[in-house]
Amino acid sequence: MLLTLFNEIPDFRRAQGKMYDLPHLLLFSVLAILSGADSYRKVESFLTEHFKILKQKLEIKWKRPPGYTTIRYIIQGLDPSELEKAFRKYAQSLISLDPKKYMFINLDGKTVRGSFNHFQDKKAVQIFSAFLANKNIILAHEKVTKNKRNEISVARKLFKELGVKHCIFTLDALHCQKKQ
Fold this sequence. Notes:
The chain is an alpha+beta fold. It is built from six helices and four strands. The protein has a four-stranded mixed sheet with strand order 3-2-1-4.
């Protein structure tokens, strides 16, 4: 399922530069991250270590696993909104909302550790997430822009985009506003 959703993501590379197909590279990167990889070099190490079995099971025709620079180039060149759209579709496919059973969706924003840059006056990146507590699934992420107050508009946007009903949403005290 995830592989077919990755197939829908537009590939920015020219036809001549496609030695490694995008859906498989993304799937293998996700597997590496789930196995503890937290850098492009560790994703490369995971692929190198498991290349033979991945090639056999998924019938890929790669001669060798991609290097970390190739992995980095491909992942950094992707449109983040397209990748988010694929993950949201996947999360929706994993859940079944039973109207007789209440589901709890937690909405909260977090600052990404180490994402600020004092030398270039870049503020830290803030991510707002919707988490389905009953199933332990992240339904969506959204980047918060400008300041913490903008988290309210991001929450409203996620309410509309998720389109779920018969759910109880939990948010922090920041969202207890009379005006907005």
